[in-house]
Amino acid sequence: MQKTPTDRALVASIHDVSPSTRLQTDRILEDLGKLGCAKTSLLVIPDHHRRGRISADAGFCDWLKARLAEGHEAVLHGYFHLRGQKAEDGLAKKLVTQSYTAGEGEFFDLPREEAARLLQDGLNEFAALEIVPKGFIAPAWLLGREAEQAVREAGFGYTTRIATVVDFQTGTTHQSRSLVWSVRARWRRVCSLAWNRTLFLATKSSPLLRIGIHPPDWDHRAIWSQILSLTRAVLADREAMTYQQWLLRQRSRP
Fold this sequence. Notes:
By secondary structure, this protein is α/β, with parallel strands linked by helices. Helix content is 41%, strand content 15%.
């Protein structure tokens, strides 16, 4: 049976959305919108690097509500988005939490109780905006076992990792590798361009194609040019939607 466009979806997610990245996020949304990608999942940090809670910024609150009214989705994305170095960290943990993600893996190895507290604090921030997020996505997609237990207990409907979308409601894990770019150094940008071109070719026939975008991506012409080029290509036969919309469709299938 030939697939229809609704069988093939694109989820573009914009990570690290906060008052400090709002202007960059607006640029990204504008550029995506010109291509017909009018719905995205916005991964919102309640207190980005401890610079101030989103509920305390009235302008950001109004902006986020307006984006949701347009059809975008707000996803809880950690709380501070930070994981400090720990004295007991071994080489493997240092590679993951420092080299891979530069100290951003907040939920990588949190005890359940601490994760639960941060999740509730995050939900409280969203509640102040009268928003109830359906999804939680850990910073850098690093979600430890105890932290995931806390996410499930907090009532979230789904999470994602770099290679999967996990539906807590149905217990289904959907395989889907996200494209994502690293821009912290020139060698990372060069490798990201080559890797994502290869990954796109390998995954372009998948029912769900995911593109993960970070605000600093828009500071590098080669990176944002590739992101927009790939987005334009996949929208030829895919529908842009949020994670929540995509999961609702999967749940309604036989």
